[in-house]
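Homework help board

Subject: predicted structure for assignment chain

Our instructor gave us this sequence and asked us to write out the predicted structure in token form, then describe one feature. I got the tokens but I'm not sure how to describe them. Can anyone check?
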Amino acid sequence: MYKKILVTTDGSEVSAAAAIKGVTFAKSIGAEVVGMFVAPEYQYPVYVEIIPPTYPSEQEYETTMKKAGEVHLKPIQEAAQSMGVKCTALTLFSDVPAQKIADAATENACDLIFMGSHGRTGLNKLLVGSVTARVLGLSRVPVLVDRLDIPAK
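My token output:
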């Protein structure tokens, strides 16, 4: 069956819950996990002649986002450790997270991507569209989507 599963998170509560389900699934089939967080790439300020002194440097931004990645990936790593599942964690940078996820699955020899049907919400999601739907179209390996459980009203 599957031996190495890429489990994604965007740091949201919903995404983190789906990621834990991914680790549980990996445990049930004896697979290892590669946890992954995709941070946006550094953006230089536009329409300014001089970079403001309070604006982070590219190195400062990268350091901050790697720390954020560690925070977002920690629940995956802790769940994997408690379940006895081998886990590695990746924080990668891209403004096209779906492509980065699909590429990372191939580059890390993963034979399945496990991700939630929903992640971050708000205006950004409306403008950009669903990362999950894009991964489904781009991935060369199967994608298992954990459906968001919305309580009935």
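Reply (TA_rk): Your tokens look well-formed. For the description, you could write something like this. Confidence is low (pLDDT under 50) at residues 122-129. That's the kind of observation they're looking for.
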